[in-house]
Amino acid sequence: MAVPEERFPVLGHRSDQAFVAGVGDRPLTMRGVTEADLPELLRVDREVFPEEPYPYFVLRQHIDVHGDRILVLDDGECLHGYVLFVTTTDGYVCWVLSLAVSADRRGRGLGRRLMLEALRQLRRERVHEVRLTVEPANAAAIMLYRTLGFATDGRVHRDYLGPGEDRLIMTLGAAGPGTA
Ligand SMILES: CC(C)(COP(=O)(O)OP(=O)(O)OC[C@H]1O[C@@H](n2cnc3c(N)ncnc32)[C@H](O)[C@@H]1OP(=O)(O)O)[C@@H](O)C(=O)NCCC(=O)NCCS
């Protein structure tokens, strides 16, 4: 992978090892999604993206087609977040299509853990670039991505995800530097 390894310190634990993210929280496990997670995955997605959640059939088929590219945070009863990342068929680019942490679990490093694990998995592959879109006003996500080394191309892509849905495109591992 063209992404410099030093940017992604490998997590000090196996991804399926339980960890506690906040005082009083049940231990969480980060693991690959299963079909049985679909109701919880839908719930989390609807909670985090109430205005534009994935329709049932889209999440269902994301699991069918690339379930190995969905990591979930599970406390044994509920899911508290997920990341979905999909590589283009030429293996050149991976898009992070969705990253979500439940509102009551934010600010505890979970978003970063999900991203680091996705990047750790991608490091073993021949992916040249990791890309994602983010709303220009989404300061928390932009900061997270920047601290992981993602950079923008310096412009807002108007209507990128539909009318009024402007997005920044952030890239990690491009041949040339972006604009942080
Ligand atoms: C973006 C999101 C996934 C971050 O998850 P999180 O678990 O709260 O993030 P973390 O605790 O791992 O924080 C990682 C970094 O993000 C940045 N960050 C997180 N919350 C922030 C905030 N409120 N303001 C500014 N920066 C913030 C910081 O750089 C932070 O690093 P630090 O803790 O070392 O300062 C979460 O806020 C979320 O689900 N938001 C709604 C959905 C969304 O916007 N998804 C991304 C779409 S592109």
Features:
180 residues, alpha+beta, Aminopeptidase, seven-stranded mixed β-sheet, 4 helices, disordered C terminus, binds coenzyme A
Bound molecules: coenzyme A
**Which structural class is indicated by helix and strand composition?**
alpha+beta
Number of helices: 4
| CATH superfamily placement | Gcn5-related N-acetyltransferase (GNAT)
Whole-number mean pLDDT: 89
The radius of gyration is: 16 Å
Please list the strands of the largest sheet in the order they lie side by side: 1-2-3-4-5-7-6
Q: Architecture, according to CATH?
A: 3-Layer(aba) Sandwich
Total beta strands: 7
Kindly provide the name of the CATH class.
Alpha Beta
| Major beta sheet summary | 7 strands, mixed
H/E element sequence: EHHEEEHEHEE
Distance between the termini: 21 Å
Instruction: Determine the strand fraction and express it as a percent band.
Output: 25-35%
CATH topology name: Aminopeptidase
What characteristic shape results from the CA principal axes? globular
Number of domains: 1
Give the fraction of residues assigned to helices.
25-40%
Q: Which residue ranges are poorly predicted, with pLDDT under 50 across at least 5 consecutive positions?
A: 6-13, 175-180
Organism: Streptomyces zinciresistens K42
Protein name: Acetyltransferase
Keywords: Transferase
GO molecular function, one term: acyltransferase activity, transferring groups other than amino-acyl groups
